Amino acid sequence: MAKSPPLRNVHKVKIPPAQPEACKCEPLKALHLDVKDLRYTPGLLNLALMELFGFIQITLAPHLTGETWPIIGIEPSDWGRTFLNCLPEDAQGNPWHFAIKPHIPNWQRELREPEILALENGFCVFKVSLGKAYCKLAAPTSATLDDLAADILSAFAFDNDHLYEFIYTNRYGLEERVNHPYDNSDPCTEDFTVGELPLYKGMELAFHFDFGDDWWFKLVVETFAANDGRYPQISILEQHGTPPKQYRDWDEDE
């Protein structure tokens, strides 16, 4: 076997260690969106998804046991800050996918929140209790909560002379309030119908009347139906027990 010729005058070359490339990333810009508004737009479902995919970090208050999701802080990650800054400044009031889609060419499908349609042309039967007295009311789904309040008070021989509110829990477990027209807060009972409630059998609502004397009526949904016009107006189906007097009779105390 032939031997390889000896190497001649090979110079050793020192190869300097590789230097990390300088980061070409631009410094993070200040957010032009208020992260506090993320609690309201684009909604709690999307807020949960944003945390799931690492856009934000949510801080909860463990001592607030009365709330379903007691959020006290929302902090965007670096990736989330970059993402949020891609949105136009008016994106808070618009569907976000219109602003995001141009940046993701392969976007094909969207995960959308299912709509809850108002129950139309039907009725709902409520059992309304105050103390040991109760009645059952059938209300058409087109009736407003202002109409319902007036008939509840009439059924219990109360004067309709104070502010009130309806309180219920929405499908996310969060408390919702529908306010008296004079309260100047949305939503208002004059514009909110029975059919717009997230009705289900056994659903409970509170009717809080007179914020001074604090009368609390309990409403429970017993049954409801769509496309059934047997109750075109609110009707009293049953009445049981003697309701308490709205005002104290001072003459009887003397």
What does this structure look like?
This protein is of the alpha+beta class and 254 residues long. The chain has two domains: 35-103, no CATH class; 123-244, MM3350-like (Structural Genomics Hypothetical 15.5 Kd Protein In mrcA-pckA Intergenic Region, Chain A). Helices cover 15% and strands 24% of the residues. It contains five helices and nine strands, in the order αββααββαβββββα. The protein has helices spanning 44-52, 78-85, 96-100, 145-155, 250-253; strands at residues 56-60, 71-76, 123-130, 133-140, 164-169, 175-179, 204-209, 215-225, 235-240. The strands form two sheets. The chain has a seven-stranded antiparallel beta sheet, with helices on one face. Strands 1-2 form a two-stranded antiparallel ribbon. Strand 3 and strand 4 form a beta hairpin. The longest helix has 11 residues, at 145-155. It is elongated, with a radius of gyration of 31 Å.
Q: What's the quick description here?
A:
The protein is of the alpha+beta class and 254 residues long. The chain is 15% helix and 24% strand.
Number of strands: 9
Mean pLDDT: 80
Per CATH, the architecture of the largest domain is Roll
**Beta-strand percentage range:** 15-25%
In CATH terms, the superfamily of the largest domain is: MM3350-like
Q: What is the helical fraction, as a range of percent?
A: 10-25%
Strand order in the sheet with the most strands: 6-5-7-8-3-4-9
Number of helices: 5
Write down the CATH topology of the largest domain: Structural Genomics Hypothetical 15.5 Kd Protein In mrcA-pckA Intergenic Region, Chain A
Sequence of secondary-structure elements: HEEHHEEHEEEEEH
Shape: elongated
Distance between the termini: 133 Å
Low-confidence stretches: 22-26
The radius of gyration over CA amounts to 31 Å
Level-1 CATH class name of the largest domain: Alpha Beta
Structural class: alpha+beta
Largest sheet: 7 strands, antiparallel
Return the domain count: 2
